């Protein structure tokens, strides 16, 4: 008998990738995915612990489900992901609704854990780091999911950097790189399923390093090999750390036409004093020099970043340094967050900046990022740009796709298909998106 499960994903792209794999695992033991909570036998939350708000949201959502389901038979509730890793058995003390706790490096055992729970009704927590076993299991897994035009592919997990604000080294563990061959096999499978863009994922994707005998494979080698797959048109990777960029990778932006000229390269702060307190191990000068080296390889490349505002010790001058670096690099599509104290991280006990000051700085920074974005969009009006079509929208005759630089583009067309590469003339924009019309090939009769 088929059973139904529901999965909700919180957090980053890697959690999205993991949720897809968890769905494949569940389907391999006769569970079908349900898009609603109605009459499900199992609920899985794949969670994020990066900021306090992310963690609180998960507990509040668990509370809502508990209320909603009060009169019904309780489904098996699985708490997976980074909160599971960080809090382990503590979760059972905080809420009696959770049955199974499973960390990001042991979720491949979920089918067996669910079976055990159904038989014994005993709470269970598995937060072991079993990366080799996990990827071996996932490599042999069949998937009946329909692929999207653009799909993620995890190549590396974990982090050895220990930025003083960040939980990731504790929730995902030490840096681990998957085998070169298993990644290439997965890329080929994706292309066979209609995927046209692959986004290589890792917490420190540029630290990818796999040694096979006397050959060492780095990220640039992966990009070269995936580029040979004919039906893959575009390759991207995220997230990179400025300290892991080698010359081969920089050069890849010059010679590898399928590698998109867009790079997410978080700097977090523009102040050397703050970067040091954050244990980032790079300076603003190093970062700006790196940007110049990328621009030398490919003058078209655009950059985006993450910024943390109000890190303990941030004074007005440090904040001005951050605004200054934003002006210098001209970042597009960036993310910014107010610093959140995380349990177990080195910065947790430091003196906090007043929330009002943080909010004021965040607003100023987001206004600057927004202005830069609008200026960039303005320059594209009337230009023809290449778009990879991702889907049809709910509006009649409208489709959605992305430019090489990751702009979100809505365009009108009588008929386009996901996976098509089309030319779009940009006609307007708003703060987040570009709008345009399809340029038809001239048909000569
Ligand atoms: N591995 C990536 C992403 C880490 S998490 C990297 O090194 O950049 C994504 C972003 O969340 C980080 O870049 C950082 O800007 C933000 N972040 C992490 N910890 C945070 C904290 N304690 N408070 C606020 N933002 C945080
Ligand atoms: Fe977190 Fe820093 Fe590692 Fe990124 S590099 S995951 S911010 S510790
Ligand atoms: Fe969140 Fe874990 Fe990703 S803490 S950002 S889900 S690595």
Overview of this protein structure:
- This protein is α/β, with parallel strands linked by helices and 445 residues long.
- Helix content is 36%, strand content 23%.
- It contains 14 helices and 22 strands.
- It has helices at residues 13-28, 52-68, 82-87, 90-94, 110-120, 131-139, 168-171, 180-192, 219-227, 247-255, 272-277, 284-297, 316-329, 355-380; strands spanning 3-9, 31-33, 42-47, 76-81, 100-102, 124-126, 150-154, 156-157, 176-177, 197-201, 209-212, 215-218, 234-238, 262-264, 302-304, 306-309, 335-338, 384-392, 398-402, 408-412, 421-429, 433-438.
- It has a six-stranded parallel β-sheet, sandwiched between helices. The protein has a five-stranded mixed β-barrel with strand order 18-19-20-22-21. The protein has a three-stranded parallel β-sheet with strand order 7-10-13, with helices on both faces.
- α1 (13-28) links the parallel β1 and β2 (31-33).
- α13 runs parallel beside α14 (355-380).
- The radius of gyration is 23 Å and the shape is globular.
- The N and C termini lie far apart (59 Å).
- It binds S-adenosyl-L-homocysteine, iron/sulfur cluster and FE3-S4 cluster.
Question: Would you spell out the secondary-structure blueprint of this structure?
Answer:
Elements: E1 3-9, H1 13-28, E2 31-33, E3 42-47, H2 52-68, E4 76-81, H3 82-87, H4 90-94, E5 100-102, H5 110-120, E6 124-126, H6 131-139, E7 150-154, E8 156-157, H7 168-171, E9 176-177, H8 180-192, E10 197-201, E11 209-212, E12 215-218, H9 219-227, E13 234-238, H10 247-255, E14 262-264, H11 272-277, H12 284-297, E15 302-304, E16 306-309, H13 316-329, E17 335-338, H14 355-380, E18 384-392, E19 398-402, E20 408-412, E21 421-429, E22 433-438
Parallel strand pairs: 1-2, 1-3, 3-4, 4-5, 5-6, 7-10, 10-13, 14-15, 16-17, 20-22
Antiparallel strand pairs: 8-9, 11-12, 18-19, 18-21, 19-20, 21-22
Helix pairs in contact: 13-14
């Amino acid at each position: 008998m088929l059973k139904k499960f529901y999965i909700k994903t919180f957090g980053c792209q890697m959690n999205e990738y993991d949720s897809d794999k968890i769905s494949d695992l569940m389907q391999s033991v006769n569970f079908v995915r349900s898009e609603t909570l109605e009459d499900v036998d199992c609920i899985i939350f794949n969670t994020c612990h990066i900021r306090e708000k992310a963690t609180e949201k998960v507990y509040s959502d668990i509370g809502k489900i508990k209320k909603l389901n009060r009169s019904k038979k309780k489904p098996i509730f699985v708490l997976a992901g980074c909160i599971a890793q960080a809090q382990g058995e503590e979760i059972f003390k905080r809420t009696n609704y959770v049955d199974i706790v499973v960390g990001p490096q042991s979720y491949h055992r979920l089918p067996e854990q669910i079976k055990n729970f159904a038989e014994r009704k005993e709470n269970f927590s598995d937060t072991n780091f079993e990366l080799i076993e996990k990827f071996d299991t996932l490599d042999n897994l069949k998937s009946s999911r329909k692929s999207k035009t653009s799909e993620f592919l995890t190549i590396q997990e974990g982090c050895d950097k220990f930025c003083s604000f960040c939980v990731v080294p504790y929730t995902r563990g030490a840096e681990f790189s998957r085998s070169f061959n298993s990644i290439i096999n997965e890329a080929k499978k994706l292309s066979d399923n209609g995927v046209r863009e692959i986004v290589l994922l890792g917490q420190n994707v540029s630290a990818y390093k796999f040694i096979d005998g006397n050959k060492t494979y780095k990220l640039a080698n992966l990009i070269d090999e995936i580029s040979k797959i004919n039906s893959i048109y575009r390759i991207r990777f995220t997230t990179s750390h400025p300290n892991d960029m080698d010359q081969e990778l920089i050069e890849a932006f010059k010679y590898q036409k399928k590698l998109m000229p867009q790079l997410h390269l978080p700097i977090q702060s523009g102040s050397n004093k703050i970067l040091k307190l954050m244990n980032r191990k790079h300076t603003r000068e190093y970062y700006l020099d790196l940007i110049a080296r990328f621009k030398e390889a490919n003058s078209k490349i655009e950059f985006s970043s993450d910024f943390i505002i109000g890190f303990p010790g941030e004074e007005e001058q440090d904040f001005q340094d951050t605004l200054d670096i934003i002006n210098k690099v001209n970042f597009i599509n960036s993310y910014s967050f107010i610093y959140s104290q995380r349990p177990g991280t080195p910065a947790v006990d430091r003196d906090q900046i007043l929330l009002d000051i943080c909010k004021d700085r965040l607003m100023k920074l987001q206004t600057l990022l927004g202005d830069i974005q609008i200026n960039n969009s303005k320059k594209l009006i009337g230009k023809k740009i290449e778009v990879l079509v991702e889907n049809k929208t709910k509006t009649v005759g409208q489709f959605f796709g992305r430019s090489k630089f990751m702009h979100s583009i809505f365009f009108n067309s009588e008929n386009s298909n996901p996976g098509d590469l089309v030319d779009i003339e940009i006609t307007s924009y708003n703060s987040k998106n570009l709008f345009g019309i399809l340029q038809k090939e001239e048909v000569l009769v």
